[in-house]
Design goal:
14 helices, elongated, four-stranded antiparallel sheet, 40% helix, alpha+beta, five-stranded mixed sheet
């Protein structure tokens, strides 16, 4: 039976010139120069060609099992684990889980090769839009110089929970350190609550970079008062950040805040799978898990900034976080000395210190409490129901003569 064997192009070339040497067409020295090998090595090749013909030029290890080859049992185990438990994991994340959970240490490329041989892994093709060109921007030099903020609404808990959640994400442009927390939606409360926690941990950053979501930038037309004062309409977030000395910068495209966009892509790959392994089913459990996951993530992926000087501003211990980050609105005092705010009715207790139809400043904490100020003085208020409005009217009528006299005197002055 005739034996078949494969030869490489280099081996076929050597067989051709060694045959010409044996026929006397060229000398061995000429063959070594053509093949670009030493004369000494060409003598060894010619000797093997004389003894075994073409087969003698084939590499001796071809067809043999490598002594460094991974055991078939381990290869089967790796392929089975990936297929059954980690089928949508990236190679890098799967490598980490093999080490942390299954105590298997292999290189990334070795794992990739095994999975491809078993046909359980398909490489991801990078999608690039050749039409869009974006200028590269270097990282900022200082920690706290620029913080990119955004929200990502996604099925973070997959089929274990029917609801979608929004992950409010923060990433330092200089270091890549992150902070995140889950909410039901992206809005004023979600931003202020997450920003307050971020500030408690790190301090106030110099600037924040967000998109043009209605939470951060309004499309409302300016009022007459704003036009007279040459002011543009501002959101609650813009007013609060200006009050605490943080610059708010708006991005005009997703690519402009590419660092936070790439973070969400990474978390939608890694974080989802980590929570799946932990069996997390609620938003509260997910937020508890983030407290232990984020420090590990930062330790693995954060970078050293170019400058050792941090621009985070540490706040005093007596800094009133709750009311410095409170929402502010203006309302008019009704004839019965009540104030309506977001469908709620409040009775002013010290009616002798205010005048009807005057404006008051309402401060609402993100945790719920409400305070009312009139000319920089806090008023005593009490929330009442609609059924109690009749009694309120009686109280206001009893004081109507006194208050009208008070108002008349004020006008005369």
């Amino acid at each position: 039976m005739e034996e078949h064997y494969l030869m490489s192009r280099k081996e076929l070339e050597r067989a051709t010139y060694m045959g010409m040497v044996l026929k006397g067409s060229i000398t061995l020295k000429e063959a070594s120069e053509i093949l670009r090998i030493s004369y000494r090595h060409s003598k060894r090749i010619l000797k093997r060609f004389r003894q075994e013909e073409e087969r003698g030029l084939i590499h001796r290890s071809r067809g043999r099992r490598s002594p460094k080859r991974i055991d078939d049992y381990l290869r089967d185990k790796i392929a089975s684990l990936y297929k059954e438990n980690y089928s949508d994991f990236s190679i890098s994340l799967f490598k980490e889980k093999l080490f942390l959970i299954h105590n298997i240490t292999l290189s990334r490329e070795t794992i990739r090769t095994i999975l491809k041989e078993y046909g359980v892994y398909k490489s991801r093709k990078a999608r690039r839009n050749s039409k869009s060109v974006h200028v590269f921007r270097e990282r900022k030099r200082h920690a706290g110089e620029l913080i990119q903020v955004d929200g990502s609404t996604h099925r973070w808990l997959e089929d274990r929970c029917k609801d979608k959640f929004t992950l409010m994400g923060y990433i330092d442009d200089a270091t890549g350190e992150i902070f995140a927390k889950f909410y039901d939606y992206e809005g004023v409360y979600s931003f202020l609550d997450s920003f307050l926690e971020f500030v408690k941990i790190n301090g106030l950053p110099k600037s924040i970079y967000t998109d043009r979501h209605s939470t951060y930038k309004t499309t409302r037309k300016p009022t007459i008062q704003e036009e007279l004062k040459n002011k543009r309409p501002a959101t609650q977030v813009e007013r609060i950040l200006k009050r605490v000395g943080v610059e708010l910068i708006h991005a005009y495209s997703p690519q402009a805040k590419g660092r936070i966009e790439r973070l969400f892509k990474t978390l939608q790959d890694r974080l989802i799978k980590e929570m799946r392994l932990k069996g997390i089913k609620t938003k509260e459990e997910a937020n508890c898990f983030l407290k232990e996951y984020i420090p590990l993530f930062n330790k693995q992926f954060a970078k050293q900034p170019k400058s050792n000087i941090s621009l985070f501003k540490k706040l005093d211990k007596d800094f009133d976080y709750e009311w410095e980050f409170a929402l502010e609105s203006q309302r008019n005092i009704n004839n019965d000395y009540t104030i309506r705010y977001k469908g709620r009715l409040f009775q002013i207790k010290d009616v002798f210190s205010v005048r009807r139809k005057q404006k008051v400043l309402i401060k609402e904490s993100i945790y719920g409490p409400i305070r009312v100020f009139y000319k920089d003085r806090e008023l005593q208020i009490e929330e009442v129901n609609k059924k109690e409005t009749s009694s309120i009217c009686k109280i206001s009528l009893n004081h109507s003569f006194i208050s009208s006299s008070f108002e008349q005197k004020e006008k005369e002055k």
